[in-house]
Design brief:
- With about 290 residues, the chain is mostly helical.
- The protein has a domain at about 240-290: Arc Repressor Mutant, subunit A (Orthogonal Bundle), CATH 1.10.10.
- It is built from 13 helices and 2 strands.
- It has helices spanning about 5-10, 35-45, 55-65, 70-75, 85-105, 110-125, 140-160, 165-170, 175-185, 220-235, 240-250, 255-265, 270-290, and strands at about 20, 20-25.
- Strands 1-2 form a two-stranded antiparallel sheet.
- Helix 7 (about 140-160) packs across helix 8, helix 7 crosses helix 9 and helix 8 (about 165-170) packs across helix 9 (about 175-185).
- The longest helix has 22 residues, at about 270-290.
- The relative contact order is 0.07.
């Protein structure tokens, strides 16, 4: 029996059991990915109108997380050579999934899966920026670093912000001095040369000609463009055909203003004015939307 068939059978008796406007799903983690995509749209619609902090809001948000954990497992497969860290990878990937859920809007007109995966992979890559100890650190502090990393992730989700030293100390039942010592020791983590070959025992996936630097996480400038592109899409539909064609020729096909002018039978100066006016219209729309 396929997971999709199993879900359909499970969902039918629940048509009368709802949380507000949402169907009750007993085990969201067992929903097949195909069904999860459709159900996620329903839950996102309600999430946008529900009051944050209510039981209904928490149910919608938690169900979305559980239904889409398969995206985290999918992204984690890219790092399957690090089996000893798989649990940590899934945990940090889940943080990325939660961030994506909190920032996603149906008005973006993009599949949630496409929106979420960059967030998930980004969190995992940032996790791998710490791969080895730069200086000798006692085993006690090495283990404390791992505890702190997990505690910080758990509390960040619960508090929706970075935890303080006191909150970490209470969570781990340690003194604040021990927490500070662990945080300082964590700065000694990561020292391997970025020029090392990827298959030199560093744990990076083997690939001919690749170095460790190819797998080190960093702030991806393209991540900042994701939301801009989705916000820009509906604004493009407000342009007339000529404005859209000129934008496509200038920035899609990279033609010069003179070449575009020849196609439209107008001067380069006229094309320049149309571009300036069109870009100003889009810029104003982006600022108003923000």
């Amino acid at each position: 029996m396929s997971m999709s068939t199993q879900f359909t059978r499970t969902a039918e008796p629940l048509t009368g059991s709802r949380v507000g406007e949402l169907p009750w799903i007993e085990d969201a983690g067992q929903v097949a990915p195909r069904d999860a995509r459709e159900l996620s749209k329903v839950f996102f619609q309600q999430l946008q109108v529900l009051e944050e902090g209510t039981h209904e809001y928490q149910y919608a948000r938690n169900t979305l997380i559980e239904m889409n954990l398969s995206l985290v497992r999918f992204a984690a497969q890219r790092f399957r050579n690090r089996d000893d860290q798989l649990e940590d990878i899934v945990q940090v990937g889940t943080i990325g999934l939660i961030k994506a859920i909190d920032r996603f809007e149906l008005s973006r007109e993009v599949e949630f899966t496409s929106f979420a995966v960059p967030y998930i992979v980004g969190e995992i890559k940032r996790f791998f920026r710490d791969t080895s100890w730069a200086v000798h650190v006692p085993r006690r502090l090495q283990e404390l670093r791992i505890q702190l990393a997990r505690a910080k992730d758990q509390l960040a989700v619960r508090l929706d912000r970075e935890p303080t030293v006191r909150e970490l100390a209470e969570h781990l039942e340690l003194s604040e001095e021990e927490i500070v010592e662990g945080l300082i020791a964590a700065n000694g983590y990561n020292s391997d040369s970025l020029d090392l070959p990827a298959d030199s025992g560093t744990g990076a996936p083997g690939r001919s000609g690749a170095s460790v630097a190819d797998f080190v996480g960093a702030c991806d400038p393209a991540m900042e463009l994701v939301e801009d592109f989705h916000s820009l899409a509906p604004l493009l539909s407000t342009l007339d055909d000529r404005e859209r064609q000129i934008l496509e020729l200038r920035y899609g096909q990279e033609l010069t203003q003179s070449q575009i002018g020849e196609r439209f039978g107008v001067s380069q100066m006229q094309i320049s004015r149309i571009l300036a006016r069109t870009l100003a219209k889009l810029r104003d729309g982006m600022l108003t939307d923000g």
